[in-house]
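Key result, reporting period 2: structure in, sequence out.
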């Protein structure tokens, strides 16, 4: 590894927590967070999503160990976590270490890793802000542990191992979107991912006249996790009801608007809530495909309109928005030069994403800075991002 790969700050932090080290004995991995442009709550329904990686990352600086111990120091939490790869990795404290423990177990059980690491964990992704700080931590750690063991894993399997960690160890029943984009993103492109067979198409998104702004509501309502699991259950219930008419279907992905209308005359029609949930997913899949097509022709007005429609559906039919996100979208809508905006990620707080003419960025920022505190009582944070590249490993060169 060339000099200067690991920043002097990280090097001195590493030495403070793990003792003296030569820079050539360290490896560094980085994995981006993500913002989803459209296709929300569709991944666990075998549907379509269209995220980009953002220019914010989890970074791991690691030194391979000869034994099976893993020692992680989190700069954000100022806390050390330790576990062993000798046997099945324990689901222990602290809570943030569960992501790494799950990843370690997935790789250990696959026979890929035996040696542990001493590692510094850093991130410039707002934690808990709905920008996949956890998925990017999983991916960066997986790459570090693999590299320390002289191993690699095909990208799709890497994303799947990380998702397994989040489901099984962190207890979050998420879909595949976050880990997948963190691993496979390409700079200057958005990814249209088909979550049924994991095929994907990279759609160019690099235009000097266009800006993508992420606006963090700085709220996180803690009903998020329970409501997420409930939405999953309601989607399954919709599929079960629709099977009376369409026995071949296994997910809402296979349901069209017409099929849904026909299903209304049966059991599904009696449960209005479940019907609205299904309506969101069916509509959102189509909006995501339409958005990808509009993006390909650089039809920003259509892209923006689809984002507003997506937000409305998430707010009214899927009911995963919250007043703060709705206010941010309304503010964005009032600013000339903003094409569209919507909540992004699981919901109940976190961020919105806005698609703007680039020159409208400062206007939008000013409107958010004035209007949001006035209406919601506290500040929002915002930043512009390009579509960034996926995760990477920088290895010692000898
Ligand atoms: C969270 C999950 C994703 C996805 C989104 C909603 O971010 O981690 O898998 O389900 O919610 O689209």
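The corresponding designed sequence is given below.
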């Amino acid at each position: 590894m060339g000099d200067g790969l690991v920043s002097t700050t990280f090097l001195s932090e590493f030495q403070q927590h793990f003792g003296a080290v030569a820079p050539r004995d360290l490896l560094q991995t980085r994995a981006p967070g993500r913002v989803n442009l459209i296709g929300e709550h569709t991944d666990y329904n075998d549907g379509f999503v269209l995220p980009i990686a953002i220019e914010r990352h989890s970074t791991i600086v690691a030194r391979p160990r000869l034994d099976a111990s893993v020692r992680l120091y989190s700069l954000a939490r100022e806390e050390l976590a330790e576990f062993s790869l000798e046997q099945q990795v324990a689901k222990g404290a602290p809570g943030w270490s569960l992501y790494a423990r799950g990843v370690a177990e997935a790789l250990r059980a696959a026979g890929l890793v035996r040696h542990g690491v001493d590692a510094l964990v850093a991130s410039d992704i707002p934690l808990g802000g709905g920008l996949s700080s956890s998925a990017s931590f999983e991916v960066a750690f997986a790459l570090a542990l693999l590299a320390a063991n002289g191993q690699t894993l095909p990208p799709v399997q890497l994303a799947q191992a990380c998702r397994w960690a989040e489901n099984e160890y962190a207890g979050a029943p998420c879909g595949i979107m976050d880990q997948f984009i963190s691993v496979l993103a390409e700079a200057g492109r958005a990814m249209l991912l088909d979550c049924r067979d994991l095929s994907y198409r990279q759609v160019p998104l690099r235009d000097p006249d266009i800006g993508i702004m992420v606006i963090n509501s700085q709220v996180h309502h803690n009903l998020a996790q329970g409501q997420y699991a409930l939405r999953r259950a309601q989607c399954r219930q919709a599929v079960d009801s629709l099977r009376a008419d369409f026995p071949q279907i296994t997910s809402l992905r296979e349901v069209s608007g017409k099929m849904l209308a026909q299903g209304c005359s049966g059991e599904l029609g009696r449960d209005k809530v479940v019907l609205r949930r299904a309506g969101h997913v069916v509509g959102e899949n189509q909006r995501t495909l339409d958005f990808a097509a509009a993006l390909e022709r650089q039809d920003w007005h259509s892209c923006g309109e689809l984002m507003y429609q997506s937000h409305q559906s998430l707010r009214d039919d899927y009911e995963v928005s919250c007043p703060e996100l709705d206010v941010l979208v309304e503010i964005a809508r009032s600013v000339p030069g903003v094409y569209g905006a919507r909540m992004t990620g699981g919901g109940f707080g976190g961020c919105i994403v806005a698609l703007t003419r680039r020159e409208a960025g400062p206007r939008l920022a000013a409107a958010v800075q004035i209007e949001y505190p006035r209406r919601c009582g506290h500040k929002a944070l915002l930043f512009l991002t390009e579509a960034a590249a996926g995760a990477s490993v920088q290895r010692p060169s000898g």
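The pocket of alpha-D-galactopyranose is lined by residues 40-41, 43-44, 174-175, 177-178, 345-346 (CB under 6 Å). The mean pLDDT is 96. This case is discussed further under Risks and Mitigation.
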